[in-house]
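Structure in, sequence out. Go:
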């Protein structure tokens, strides 16, 4: 299959795209969804446009100050989730679980509640999961050597037609 119509219209999707040039697929997807959104108008009844109904979701970032215990939630719109591939992960589900694991923030987090510099934890969760969740795999890893460039990760990751999101989905306001 040669998508001639798509290839000949690459510059209309975004000015940085052209035929025969290697492009970042996740960047292409973002620009394609944006172009679809711009070309469709919100229905007169106020419902979201087609791209928003299909690809738009919400990620919740929860930061907890370890000094005073205050919790700060931030909701961010998403159209895709970019997943790193650590050595010990062998599946897309594992990469997603790793992306959503609670992480320690270094000393220096400025708590809005106690107004002090403190250690904190940060947890990501999906609040609104779109009908089509676009998952981008970060296939390059930085090496500790200052002279080496990024190394391509070529290992196979298992995946299935369905992705169980049980622990990844958060209540909007817990």
């Amino acid at each position: 299959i040669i998508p001639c119509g798509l290839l000949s219209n690459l510059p209309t999707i975004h000015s940085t795209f052209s035929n025969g040039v290697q492009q970042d697929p996740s960047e292409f997807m973002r620009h394609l969804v944006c172009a679809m959104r711009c070309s469709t108008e919100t229905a007169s009844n106020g419902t979201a446009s087609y791209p928003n109904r299909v690809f738009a979701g919400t990620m919740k970032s929860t930061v907890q100050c370890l000094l005073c215990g205050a919790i700060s939630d931030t909701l961010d719109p998403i159209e895709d989730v970019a997943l790193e591939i650590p050595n010990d992960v062998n599946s897309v589900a594992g990469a997603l679980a790793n992306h959503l694991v609670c992480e320690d923030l270094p000393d220096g987090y400025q708590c809005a509640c106690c107004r002090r510099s403190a250690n904190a934890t940060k947890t990501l969760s999906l609040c609104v999961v779109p009908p089509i969740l676009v998952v981008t795999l970060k296939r390059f890893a930085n090496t500790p050597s200052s002279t080496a460039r990024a190394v391509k990760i070529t290992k196979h990751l298992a995946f299935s037609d369905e992705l169980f999101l049980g622990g990844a989905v958060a209540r909007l306001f817990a």
